[in-house]
Amino acid sequence: MRVRQNRAGNQTRSTIVESAVAVIVDHGIAGMTLQEVARRAGVKYGNLTHHYPNRATLVAAVLDMLESRYLDRFRTFAASLSDNPGSPIEPLLDWLLDDAVAAQTAGLFLELWASSTRDPQIADRVTRLYDEAVEACILALGVSPDARAAGPLRNALYLLGTVVEGSSALFAAGTRNPAVYQAFRSDALLLLKPLLEHRLEEARSATSSSRGRTVRNRPQKIIPR
């Protein structure tokens, strides 16, 4: 009985959080009310407040879900880059640029960025999300995030993030001529691909050299005759 109750409770919480995301996309975080979330989730107001007593706890649950879901999705894609026979940079750029102008991604993240200027809790979570995404990408590209050589690559990935997120603000609404976005996308690839490939090659070369020095400097075991 307890297992069924826990499962039902988890399902209710999931439904409430997904409904809260939909409300945020439509009305923003400031316009998200518990009453509207309960209506969309198809649950009674008292049932919602049983799981999330106030707006702050529900916003925190939304941020938890977004962080987990987006990072899982990003890590899955980033891990697939190692299987690419050519440069992993172009598929990474393609995926990020296309995802940035997808309706739900843009709607959520534009709202999170705007809210982070007023809410330290949201600002901290958004910063953590981007930091973890960059570290996952560095690791998937075959570079240790802890290596000194990862620094320039990390900076280039933050530059990529800035361009990608800016494209959400400029093009996600769909009010511009699609040809304008395609021209922007082509120029973004033209500018960012060589930089990222150069930084990746630098990081990989430095990592390989460091490993080589470690092997050469390793004390040799002397076997007595």
Automatic annotation (TrEMBL):
GO molecular function, one term: transcription cis-regulatory region binding
Stored InterPro entries: Homeodomain-like_sf, HTH-type_TetR-like_transc_reg, HTH_TetR
Superkingdom of origin organism: Bacteria
Keyword entries, A-Z: DNA-binding, Transcription, Transcription regulation
Chain residues forming the annotated DNA-binding region: 33-52
Domain HTH tetR-type positions: 10-70
Coiled coil (residue ranges): none
UniProt biased composition (Basic residues): 213-225
Start and end residues of each stretch annotated as Disordered: 203-225
Protein name (database record): HTH tetR-type domain-containing protein
Source organism per UniProt: Sphingobium baderi LL03
